[in-house]
Write a structure and sequence with these properties.
Helices cover about 35% and strands about 25% of the residues. It has 14 helices and 16 strands.
């Protein structure tokens, strides 16, 4: 297999090269670190609902939509991309995507280990530290007639700017996202004293992928791939492509696999209810409820929220738990039923 390490790493090119190769049917591994920062949204994302476009513009961050799924992410210096383009089922890689993830996660795991960081694969597409912090997100897709597998080694990551580019209901929720993301993400320089260069990380990645896929032969990107990448840059940033309708509903912000932040709202007969909830491993990890409803006695309101911590994140389970709490404490909420609170917290189910 051929190895490509492009010299031109400006603008959006580092994420456009593998798209162009896949559309042209060119197999190979691309290892590259961007020179510039930009925001990439997933193929199934609703760009206007997930990204704060005005903030991105103010920060000078271009926004593009890729042909791989996943959520919105800030890309830029400090992230060494590995983009594999191949025929599905070739080079001994399983045809089934979840099995391919497991096998293709070996090189980045070995790369982190080389620099003193223990990482392990967590289904479906994360690499995490022993403490459970996300240290790499990966993706896969069919583009053209090729299968692509993408990910990055995080030398460092700008959580503050990542938080700024997301569309959120208010600044308090943005602060909550920052705190949760900072607690649940990590990177090489946070986990280790090692300070490798981009080239050094790329060398280790290439060696590990070579052991998995067979010898890699470094080559220069074909001119037709470079030309097509430039054309795709215009397409992927066009309003038509960026704002194409998608069936995806953005009811929560994914921090890492298994950890989400959600802000919900529900209008009950007795008033408006809003809820901010952190979900970890399908259970409520943190919860704040508010609104303009009546809750008597009000001294039981904080205990209700504490009561729900650890509860399964399911409408019926949450409603039942609230109903039991209210019955035991003789709580009165005129015009607001337990299911109303549950819908604000979990959604419609």
């Amino acid at each position: 297999m051929d190895l490509y390490r492009p010299r031109d790493t400006s603008g959006l090119k580092p994420i456009l090269y593998f798209h162009a190769m896949a559309h042209l049917g060119i197999e190979g591994l691309v290892i590259v670190e961007p020179s510039d920062r930009f925001v990439s949204v997933g193929f199934f994302d609703d760009t206007a609902k997930i990204v704060d476009l005005d903030r991105c513009h103010a920060l000078g961050l271009p926004v593009m939509r890729r042909e791989v799924g996943g959520g919105a992410v800030l890309l830029g210096p400090g992230q060494v991309f590995y983009h594999l383009v191949m025929q599905r089922g070739s080079h001994g890689i399983p045809v089934q995507v979840d099995e391919a993830y497991k096998v293709l996660s070996i090189p980045p795991i070995e790369t982190y280990a080389h620099f003193g960081v223990e990482a392990r694969y967590r289904p479906i597409n994360d690499l995490i530290t022993p403490e459970g912090r996300k240290i790499s997100g990966q993706g896969a897709a069919d583009i053209g007639k090729c299968f692509v597998f993408v990910g990055s080694i995080l030398r460092h990551f700008d959580v503050a700017t990542m938080t700024q580019v997301l569309r959120v209901p208010d600044e308090k929720f943005r602060d909550k996202i920052f705190k949760t993301m900072d607690e649940n993400m990590s990177w090489l320089e946070r986990e280790s004293q090692a300070r490798p260069t981009s080239r050094e990380v790329g060398d280790v990645l290439a060696a590990s992928f070579g052991r998995l896929l067979g010898p890699l032969h470094e080559k220069v990107l074909p001119p037709e791939a470079i030309t097509l990448a430039e054309q795709l840059g215009g397409e992927f940033t066009s309003d038509e492509f960026l704002f194409e309708e998608t069936p995806r509903r953005h009811e929560a912000i994914k921090i890492r696999e298994g950890v989400y932040l959600r802000q919900g709202m529900h209008k009950a007969r007795g008033g408006l209810i809003w809820a901010e909830v952190e979900v970890a491993e399908d259970r409520i990890a943190a919860l704040k409820i508010g609104g303009d409803f009546t809750f008597i006695p009000k001294g039981d309101f904080a205990p209700l929220q504490d009561h729900l911590i650890g509860a399964p994140f399911e409408v019926e389970t949450v409603a039942s738990s609230i109903a039991r709490f209210m019955a035991e404490r003789a709580v009165e909420t005129p015009g607001v039923l337990p299911c109303d609170f549950a819908q604000a917290i979990v959604g419609q189910g």
